[in-house]
Specification:
heterotrimer, A alpha+beta (about 475), B alpha+beta (about 525), C alpha/beta (about 425), B: about 525 residues, alpha+beta, globular, C: about 425 residues, alpha/beta, 4-stranded parallel sheet, 18 helices
């Protein structure tokens, strides 16, 4: 077919695939989004190649779906209308590490494993979300605004700015990346339209070719505390109080299911006894010291933590469930991508579908009750729901994640989970939870309730991509 | 201004019906009061609007915008009206909205944010926030300027070392688009009463709200926002004593401790700040030039010029790093002091002379938390200029300051002697920074005309050198877009779609008439010379 | 002045050292809005943070100090013609002349914006632009020598029954000048009577002018009638000289300000004291002792003319006024719990009465007073105490209109209750 030849002329014949087996790999991911086959997969390794392919596609109105990660969980990279998959995983250079300004410049194919490994040599890291897949693109995580474990406001907004290829093949930059005469070009804001517009866009407005991301120094000393909570209603207050004192680095909440899932060395043998040994919920709070007088920092923060615990009648412990070396085990996990076998989310049954959203922390009991009620109605065991809460920016906001597990090969089970997932999602939206990144079925739920936002997004899309070739069919496009 | 003609009467009828006559004025005396500000451009470009109106709600603004679409009249809006050049009337039938009636504050203490309308000042918000153990960052404009406008238009905050750029402190946004629709972002998008989070849904339209600078109402009127608040370890009322202009503020020393450290060179001062950011100590951190010391400290012009010409501040306040340690948790200051002392030693700093410290600190330094500069520069000459307001990294500021100094030297005189007025404000623990070079000038027409040339020169140099100063960010994208990613094409498409009648502060952000004329011309040329691509 | 590069200083000496110049002052306004707010350091409540009643009530910037500066420059430079301004008089007269704007401005500027407004009023009156509602008041003033539109002959009735020197026939060291409002407002007679008695009990050689007392001229001055002011000032000074007076004591803050700050411009050398200064002195000397407790939560309202208007402008100097004496008095009364309002001392919110606003714009005047009562309530005060007859009348009227229970006292009344 002429298109394949044309694409080969841009990237080389070896870098264009239309083998159904290859295409099938890109037609689906771990989500419930309907699988759809692309027509071609194009592997790119440079910006001119990206520009060439996109320009070509734009002239012919062929959809282009960019993919930066080898793994995908939420359906953003499944082509809705066929067309080209632009595989950017081969663009995997770490272009610059700037320890002084705490930033790293990376290509889209750079994975979490790669970036943390390389940054670690200089005592740096990118602020991590919770146990990212090692093969996931760190740029994708940042673009999709994945919530980070460290609650410091100064760490938030990991994506600083970047370069991208627009639908017409032109280059575009956000923030001061557009100001080539400036030394570091690291500021998030430049001219309107600003960087924020491209976050959460799922590749529908431009294809990022490199990004500046915030990097942080890895603390030199840490002390991990665990706060056991019997009920969902016990979670928010300790977190509000601890965060209000600006204490600590990583802070997250896992229910026993999720904590067991990440700790179990062998699934399922270790999982059940572990789960039973753990409290219903565990707040994990890390206190850290940087490179100067780290122990003294931890000391005063620990005193503050103890003071709060005394007032609120909870007990920060160095262990839960009697698990040997739990603190160092957890700490190691929190600063690295997932290192165990498989992927922690999939360890239970092979398939996992998450309802995740933003809401303020004091609503944890309310949402938990609602979602467990729905799960029960579908005959899904409440104990098998994986729950993760992430305070954001010193707990001014909460990120909630409820996971429902199933065997992806069991069509009936998948169908049940799909229905549960959809109903739970509708309930979340009706209760005011925010799907900040509306993947898959969430898009309709969200956008039909936000008419002006939707209409304005379409105006923006039309401005950037009038032929609607970039990942069409996603969001409201 | 075709004041008083049929269209004027029609507009008046409509506006009065929407707002009530009390809130509509076409009195030339009243209009005169909205014709300029202190910037050179503001002084030179005085022009009266056709109407000043005082809307009282989002719905009223929406109706006015719809009326504007019906009768094709332009509009813009001011907060406290400190900064005018980008909203002053520049065409006939201009309706300028004064946001005085939009002054509500609601604070969510637990989740640390405040919902504010356009006319809420920094000091008002600060006063209410600290009652609840929270605070908001305050920019140079001062406590009496609008917190809302700072967030959506400009704005570093003096606490940016911790609280970041003002733009990243906006949560939910409610916004009347030029077509009259109401846009709501984040948690507001689905339900109209929750401002707690501003992201998305999906692509974040707050990216249209602002870049380095806001859109100045060219993409609509923002009517309500939520802004982030941060934990405040201090008293629930601002501690102040004495009478103006010599008031004293002494925050409790066990919760707030200032250090002023001098360095032999600005490079070393910047190195020290990077180290402080790396250690994540302190709550407020700046490099201050001697000019700021005199601006804030002098209570009269005479006092200002006396100490300036004696070079008191220039000799005693060289390459100063000012850092305030806060005690959010018990013993935090004790710990941070130890670290700070290590850093001072390692970076070759010296504490400022105690006499200077005592002279300056109790009367001024806590301005960084409550009131900032507050236009104190106005005491000196009356006009404020800058040859650099850059946002990038601290090192980038150092790199670009010589260019700014060169430009300042070129325009001094008529600019007044300001020394090397290089201000550096790190953001987010020194991930990013603002670098600014200020000067003052006598506010006369002749001087303003000359000063305005300096702004034009900055913008020309920025385009040539591909540097983004605030003044360039505020300029028309028609002019600057070609040097910066051709953003003007994207902006034009968006503007054209949501403001088809080109009534939202036309000629700001992008001049659509000029843009369309140029595109038409290029298209014509392309027709005549096929193969000549559209360039700029 | 040469501007040598590296030492570039302003050419205009005004920029190096402030002196009065009408146009320079108006031109130098930079629209920073400090004139609309109390000092940001002082703000304790968003609700009670404004300092300018006319800006807060009329809202348009034309009615703010900043707007008045714009209009002034516009008129002087010919950008604006008087005849084209719809509400020229309103722009300059919908203002209490309280000086809140002036205090706000001075925290960051060397400027006297209130003086700009004052001189523009003189100019307008001089050119025959008169606020229509001022006309009957001024006519009456010219005939009856008072601002209350009452017969001159009734002026002395407040002192009936009091044994006191008549300075039209006798001599004394001190003249007690009651003031127009205390003289004719029956509800307030007790304040004047008590004040005079306190002076007499302290052994002061004091007398009054009785029915021959005339207006201090301060209010007409503020209203722009400089000629009338001069007439009354000269009359008063001559009457006092004839009576051998050396010191003028008054319970009225408007009068205090006129005597202390305006009269020296026309040659006065009399010592001037407000009653609160006198009482404060007596308490500190042990000559007044309190025997009764007044269990009440009270707040003190700083009259503009006793507070910030009492200040003589020297750039850089604190905006002084009589702030401490009345507070010291109140706090020394047994049983009193004293609370400050959010806006006090040099940033006190005006009662509304000054500058001809009461005479010219009664709704605005009333609203301003009601705002203050609301503020007093907000700080938990059961009573507002002040030291000016005009403030007291405005607050009493406001309390009545609002249906509030807040009591209104003069400092003198509280002292009398506690003795």
């Amino acid at each position: 077919m002429a298109i394949k030849e044309d694409l080969a002329a841009i990237v080389g014949a070896a870098n264009v695939a239309d083998d159904p087996e290859v295409l099938r790999k890109y037609s689906r991911d771990y989500s419930l989004v309907t699988p759809r086959m692309p027509s071609w997969v194009v592997y790119v390794k440079s910006v001119p190649e990206i520009q060439g392919v996109v320009k070509y596609a734009n002239e012919r109105k062929i959809p282009v779906t960019p993919r930066s990660s080898r793994v995908s969980f939420y359906g953003a990279g499944i082509p809705s209308q066929g067309g080209i998959i632009l595989d950017l995983t081969g663009m995997s250079k770490i272009l610059q590490i700037d320890a002084r300004n705490k930033k790293v410049k990376v290509e889209p194919g750079v994975t979490w494993a790669q970036v943390q490994d390389e940054l670690g040599k200089q005592g740096l890291m990118v602020s991590s979300p919770f146990l990212p897949h090692p093969e996931k693109s760190v740029v994708t995580s940042a673009l999709e605004r994945e919530p980070i474990l460290i609650t410091k406001s100064e760490y938030s907004e990991v994506f600083l700015n970047g370069e991208m290829v627009l639908a017409n093949g032109d280059l575009f930059w956000t923030g001061t990346a557009m100001a080539k005469g400036m030394k570091d070009q690291v500021f998030t804001e430049g001219l309107i339209p600003g960087t924020k517009l491209f976050l959460g866009a799922q590749g529908t407005l431009g294809i990022v070719t490199w990004a500046h991301l915030k990097a942080e120094f890895i603390p030199t000393r840490d002390k991990v505390f665990f706060i056991a909570c019997d009920n969902a209603s016990d979670i928010a207050e300790p977190i509000y109080s601890i965060q209000r004192k600006m204490l600590g680095s990583e802070c997250l909440v896992l229910n026993r299911f999720n904590l067991a899932a990440i700790l179990a060395e062998k699934m399922p043998d270790d999982f059940k006894p572990l789960r039973e040994s753990l409290p219903p919920y565990t707040i994990i709070q890390v206190l850290s010291g940087m490179h100067r007088l780290p122990d003294e920092r931890i000391a005063y923060e620990e005193r503050a933590l103890t003071g709060i615990a005394s007032e609120l009648h909870f007990e920060p412990q160095r262990n839960v469930g009697g698990i040997a070396g739990l603190d160092s085990k957890i700490l190691g996990m929190l600063r690295e991508p997932w290192q165990g076998d498989g992927y922690w989310k999939l360890r239970s049954k092979g398939g996992c579908h998450e309802v995740f959203f933003h809401a303020t922390m004091e609503r944890i009991p309310e949402f938990t009750a609602a979602l467990t009620q729905i799960a029960t109605a579908y005959g899904y065991p409440v104990d098998d729901i994986g729950i993760y809460f992430q305070p954001l920016e010193r707990a001014r906001m909460g990120f909630y994640q409820y996971s429902f597990h199933c065997n992806p090969e069991d069509a009936r089970e998948v169908d049940k989970i799909r229905k549960l997932y959809l109903e739970a999602s509708e309930r979340v939206v009706n209760m005011g939870g925010l799907f900040a990144t509306p993947y898959g079925a969430w898009a309709d739920m969200v956008y039909r309730r936000a008419s002006t936002y939707t209409a304005t997004l379409k105006v923006v899309k039309n401005a950037f991509d009038p032929n609607n070739i970039l990942n069409p069919g996603k969001l409201c496009y | 201004m075709p004041y008083g003609d049929e269209k004027h009467k029609l507009m008046y009828e409509g506006l009065a019906k929407i707002l009530g006559e009390r809130y509509v004025s076409d009195d030339p005396g009243v209009l005169q009061a909205y014709s300029r500000d202190y910037y050179a451009a503001g002084v030179l470009r005085r022009r009266r609007a056709e109407f000043i109106i005082l809307p009282g709600s989002t719905e009223e603004i929406q109706q006015v915008v719809k009326l504007a679409n019906r009768y094709h009249f332009p509009f813009s809006i001011i907060g406290t009206g400190m900064f005018f050049p980008t909203v002053v009337a520049v065409a006939d039938y201009w309706v300028l909205m004064d946001s005085k009636r939009l002054n509500r504050i609601e604070i969510d203490e637990k989740n640390m944010y405040a919902i504010i309308q356009n006319y809420v000042t920094h000091a008002q918000l600060h006063a209410e926030a600290i009652k609840k153990g929270l605070f908001n960052g305050i920019p140079e404009a001062g406590g009496q300027a609008s917190a809302f406008c700072n967030a959506i238009w400009a704005g570093n905050q003096d606490s940016s070392y911790r609280t970041g750029m003002a733009s990243r402190n906006i949560l939910g946004v409610e916004w009347v688009l030029p077509n009259g629709d109401i846009l709501r972002t984040g948690t507001l998008a689905g339900r109209g009463d929750d401002y707690s989070w501003g992201e998305g849904p999906g692509p974040d339209l707050r990216g249209l709200l602002r870049g380095i600078s806001g859109h100045n109402a060219a993409l609509g009127i923002v009517t309500r926002i939520a802004v982030k608040l941060y934990p405040w370890p201090g008293p629930s009322a601002w501690p102040v004593a004495g009478l103006a202009p010599g008031k004293k503020c002494e925050l409790p020393l066990d919760k707030f401790k200032w250090y002023l450290i001098t360095y032999p060179t600005i490079q070393k001062a910047v190195d020290a700040m990077y180290e402080m950011g790396k250690c994540e100590i302190g709550a407020v951190l700046h490099h201050l030039p001697p000019l700021y010391f005199d601006w804030w400290w002098a209570k009269s012009r005479e006092e200002y010029w006396k100490t300036w010409l004696e070079e008191y501040w220039q000799k005693n306040c060289k390459n100063v790093v000012a850092i305030c340690l806060w005690n959010w948790a018990e013993d935090q200051i004790e710990y941070e002091e130890k670290v700070l002392n290590q850093i001072i030693k390692d970076t070759g700093g010296e504490l400022i002379d105690d006499e200077v410290y005592q002279r300056w600190v109790p009367y001024t330094l806590n301005n960084w938390i409550r009131d900032s500069n507050a236009c104190r520069w106005m005491r000196v000459g009356g006009g404020l200029g800058n040859t650099a307001i850059l946002f990038d990294s601290m090192d980038a500021a150092l790199q670009l300051f010589p260019v700014a100094f060169e430009l300042m030297d070129k325009y001094t005189p008529p600019a007044l002697d300001a020394g090397r007025a290089d201000w550096i404000l790190p953001m987010d623990f020194c991930h990013q920074a603002l670098g600014e070079v200020d000067y003052v000038f006598e506010k006369t027409i002749d001087v303003c005309t000359k000063i305005q040339e300096s702004f034009v020169e900055i913008m020309r140099r920025d385009r040539q050198d591909k540097v983004l100063n605030l003044s360039t960010a505020m300029s028309l994208q028609n002019l600057v877009g070609p040097a910066f990613a051709n953003v003007h094409h994207i902006t034009a498409r968006i503007k054209d779609a949501i403001d088809p009648n080109n009534i939202a502060n036309p000629t700001r952000l992008i001049d659509m008439e000029k843009y369309k004329a140029k595109m038409a011309k290029l298209a014509q040329e392309a027709k005549q010379e096929p193969g000549k691509a559209e360039t700029k | 002045m040469v501007m040598e590069h590296g030492k570039s200083v302003p050419i205009d000496p005004w920029q190096r050292k402030y002196y009065w110049d009408l146009r320079k002052n108006a031109w130098h306004c930079d629209r920073d809005s400090n004139c609309k707010w109390i000092d940001p350091w002082e703000i304790k409540s968003a609700r009670f943070s404004k300092v300018c009643p006319s800006s807060a009530y009329y809202l348009f910037d034309g009615y703010s100090c900043q707007g008045r500066m714009d209009v002034t420059v516009g008129l002087i430079d010919g950008e604006l013609k008087q005849e084209e301004v719809h509400d020229l008089l309103g722009i300059y007269y919908k203002c209490n002349m309280c000086g809140g704007c002036d205090a706000g401005c001075k925290r960051i500027q060397d400027m006297e914006p209130l003086r700009v407004i004052q001189e523009m009023r003189h100019k307008l009156v001089g050119e025959g632009h008169l606020v229509p509602t001022h006309a009957p008041v001024m006519d009456s003033l010219r005939k009856e020598d008072n601002m209350m539109m009452q017969p001159k002959a009734d002026r002395g009735k407040w002192a009936e029954g009091l044994k006191v020197k008549d300075l039209t026939r006798e001599k004394a060291d001190v003249v007690f000048h009651a003031g127009c409002r205390f003289s004719f407002d029956k509800e307030q007679w007790p304040v004047a009577r008590t004040a005079l008695s306190l002076l007499q009990k302290a052994g002061v050689d004091v007398g009054i002018m009785g029915a021959s007392e005339v207006c201090c001229g301060g209010r007409p001055y503020e209203m722009g009638y400089k000629g009338e002011f001069t007439k009354f000032a000269e009359h008063n000074m001559e009457a006092w000289r004839n009576a051998g007076v050396k010191t003028v004591v008054t319970p009225c803050s408007d009068g205090y300000w006129a005597f202390k700050r305006l009269y020296p411009e026309v040659g006065s050398k009399f010592e001037v004291l407000h009653m609160v200064e006198f009482i404060d002195r007596l308490i500190k000397q042990g000559k007044i002792k309190f025997t009764r407790s007044i269990p009440m939560t009270v707040t003190y309202h700083d009259p503009c003319h006793l507070g910030r208007r009492d200040h003589v402008y020297v750039p850089g100097e604190p905006i002084k006024g009589i702030y401490d004496a009345p507070r010291d008095i109140i706090k020394s009364i047994p049983g009193i719990e004293f609370v400050e309002m959010y806006r006090n001392k040099e940033y006190a919110w005006c009662c509304g009465a000054g500058g001809g606003a009461k005479e010219g714009y009664p709704e605005f005047n009333a609203w301003t007073a009601q705002e203050r009562i609301t503020e007093a309530k907000a700080v938990g005060a059961q009573a507002v105490v002040t030291a000016c007859s005009w403030c007291e009348r405005n607050f009493m009227d406001a309390v009545k209109t609002m249906g509030e229970k807040t009591k209104v006292y003069d400092v003198v009344e509280l002292v009398q209750q506690a003795i």
